[in-house]
Amino acid sequence: MWHGGGWFAYMRSSDEKPKVTRDLLLRVLSYARGYWWHIAGMLVTILLTTGLSLLTPLIFRNMIDVVIPAKDTNRLILLAAALLFIPAVTGLINVLQRRLNATVGEGVIYDLRSSLFARLQRMSLRFFTNTKVGELMSRLNNDVVGAQNAISNTIVNIVTNLIETIALIAVMVTLEWRLTLVSVLILPLFILAARRLGNVLRDIARQGMEMNAQMNAHMNETLNIGGALLVKLFGRSIEEEKRFRDRAANVRDIGIRRAVVGSTFFVIFGLVSAIGTALVYGLGGYFVITDVFTVGTIVAFGSYLGSLYGALQGLAGAPVEFSTSMVSFERVFEVIDLPHDIVENEDAVALEDVRGELEFDNVTFNYHVDESMLLKEVKRYGRHQDVGAVLSLVKPTVDDGPKTKAKSGNGQSSMVNGQDEGSSDGETVTTSQAREVALDGISFTARPGQLVALVGPSGAGKTTMTYLIPRLYDPTEGVIRIDGYDLRDVTLDSLSDAIGMVTQETYLFHDTIRTNLTYAKIDATQEEIESAARAANIHNFIVDLPDGYDTIVGERGYRLSGGEKQRIALARVILKNPKILVLDEATSHLDSESEALIQEALKRVMAGRTSIVIAHRLSTILAADLILVMDRGRIVERGTHNELIALNGLYAQLYETQFRGERV
User: Fold this and answer.
1) Which of 12, 246, 408, 481 has its CA 20 to 30 A from that of 256?
2) What is the Cα–Cα distance from 485 to 483, expressed in whole angstroms?
3) Residues 6+ apart with CB under 8 A from 31
4) pLDDT at 11 (0 to 100)
5) Which CATH number characterizes residue 440's domain?
6) Are 303 and 67 in contact (CB under 8 A)?
7) What is the CATH number of the domain that holds 176?
8) How far apart are the first and last CA of the chain?
9) pTM above the 0.85 mark?
10) Same domain, residue pair 492 and 596
């Protein structure tokens, strides 16, 4: 809403201006480097259209002063034809200019988006867990388009108006220097009006951008499949409709305000132009009466005058428009300049003939967030609030991170990145897992082909440990080795090829089953796809579907059951054929039939591979070569099932509570 005092707040904030530095400007222009020929072509077309626009008033002057008094019919026909020819040629040139302009603009969008997306693909999981998806979408869409506008529109308009102004003043001086002097005397009025009203209009536009962002954030939160399901389950449709109407009303009201102020902006410019026009025609009429020059001269001069004031209006508002466009470039460059959290060494080696030996050597890890690795707000001038909480009606207090020891280093207690560390059915272990350090002094070795089971209370650090293996995070201290190589000394691509991971919460793209499976191996044949699906006990289900492997699974795979999604995820890993398997085998939320199918598939998946499994089933624990019992980020017990039972420690307690129902 437009609250009382908003206008004066805008007037105060208008003193704040974006800083357009030389380095920023040079960097912006560097994105136009690949399009110099197109830009040169645009400059040529600008010169041509400007030159042609100067001819029309001269034709009018000649017709009025020479041709009509002389009753020269032939020359009159030629001049009339010229009046038709000039706009026709100008139109064709404008089409060519628009094509060149669009090529530059869309090319810049493509380059920026490609750079942004490539950068984001190399960011660590830590970055994504601390960044709002809506903010990334805004950078990839709104800010990229805003940045493109600076090159393809703002700069082009400035050049066009500058060339046109110089050419018009030059021609007007040759026609009548006294009228030209009168015409430019009102230039300070243009500057004053542009500075005052331009800043206000810019600030209102910024406020509109923010209100649109709030509305879009609300839609993003409530219209995705998870948000829609939550709204329906808690019966909050009416409340969400009200929240959306409030945000949409803000967008409506600021849009009305923007239209009114914009209209006022142009009315004032029109009045300023009218002052100049009145002076020119008044003085010019006097000169015609006193025979200083002809009627044709003042007619031609009047035509030039309208074009001159249009160009001056564009130049007067150009600094505000350009500096505002630079904000979008700053936001884009901020992402491109973000340092990588997970860095590949220059001399990194590619893993070949992986045996599958995995070693943790005194590994410690916490979720401390380095603010330099995250996005910062680039100030949007004239803006009074950020896009904070989506559902809150008031701006929430900013959470600066963990305030007490009741939370872990990432501000979560028994949750990691919004994902539970693995549920423990029937868990009665009541020791709090809240702590500052997620993992502390973890050391163990998994030999090639071994099955290592991770057990422990929810929040003990099991999922965190598995996330370190494919370098979703790097250890804070210590070393993780694969076949004797420090993970930081191997290439990220070869590490990814060597490791397959199935998380408890399976993610599927809104695409076909085939596409989701071949994500692991793009060039997989139909035979390989079906073989993997059979190994995961999902092939028969797929072929019974109306579209078979070409069935669309829906948003996040919501058209499939939990067991079906997990088996597709297993098939995907089988198709990848990694040497090391990292697996959260949670099956507690599945029916007995799905669970049995998954357990059978797991035996095939783990055969011949080094497997690190967050174990939820007794059968996995009994088959494990090594069981690691975790508590509060430490390995407190290790050994086989029988050895750990004999210790009568935490594992024995977990066994009695969590797995007793499975004992035969």
Assistant:
1) 12
2) 6
3) 108, 111, 112, 151
4) 33
5) 3.40.50.300
6) no
7) 1.20.1560.10
8) 67
9) no
10) yes
Structural contact between residues 339 and 372, judged by C-beta atoms closer than 8 angstroms: yes
Q: CA 459, 462, 465, 470: dihedral to nearest 10 degrees?
A: -120
Q: Across the beta sheet with 477-482, what order do the strands follow? A: 439-446, 358-365, 477-482, 485-486
Give the number of other CB atoms < 10 A from CB of residue 59.
18
Domain boundary among 306, 336, 366: 336
Residue whose C-alpha is closest to residue 617's, from 417, 422, 419, 421: 422
| Strand 634-639 with 626-631, pairing | antiparallel
Tokens of residue 591, six digits: 């029916």
Domain membership of residue 565 (yes or no) is yes
Distance CA 561, CA 580 (A): 27
Give me the sign of the Cα torsion angle 646, 650, 651, 657: positive
Q: Per the structure, how many domains does the chain have?
A: 2
Task: Give 141's Cβ-side CA count (13 Å radius).
Answer: 9
Any domain includes 558: yes
Nearest to 663 by CA among 645, 648, 649: 645
Beta-carbon count within 10 A of 632 CB: 19
If asked whether residues 326 and 447 sit together in one domain, one would say no
Express as a percent the part of the chain with pLDDT over 70.
82
In three-state secondary structure terms, 506 is coil
Can you give 518-586 as a three-state secondary structure string? HCCCCCCCHHHHHHHHHHCCCHHHHHCCCCHHHCECCHHHCCCCHHHHHHHHHHHHHHHCCCEEEEECC
Q: Report how far residue 66's alpha carbon sits from residue 63's, in angstroms, rounded to the nearest whole number.
A: 6
The verdict on residue 395 lying in a domain is no
Q: Are 223 and 332 part of one and the same domain?
A: yes
Task: Compute, in degrees rounded to 10, the torsion defined by CA atoms 235, 241, 247, 253.
Answer: -160
pLDDT along the chain (664 residues), means of 10: 34 46 77 82 90 88 88 89 92 92 84 83 77 73 74 79 88 85 78 71 74 77 75 79 89 87 77 81 85 84 84 74 72 78 83 89 81 53 43 41 36 38 44 73 91 88 90 90 91 89 82 89 90 87 90 81 84 88 70 70 79 83 89 90 89 79 54
Residue 360 forms part of a structural domain: no
Which domain does 137 fall in, by range? 20-336
Nearest to 382 by CA among 261, 550, 207, 552: 207
**In the listed set 288, 305, 336, which residue is the last one of a domain according to the structure?**
336
User: What is each CA distance from 223 to 217, 231, 455, in whole angstroms?
Assistant: 10, 9, 37
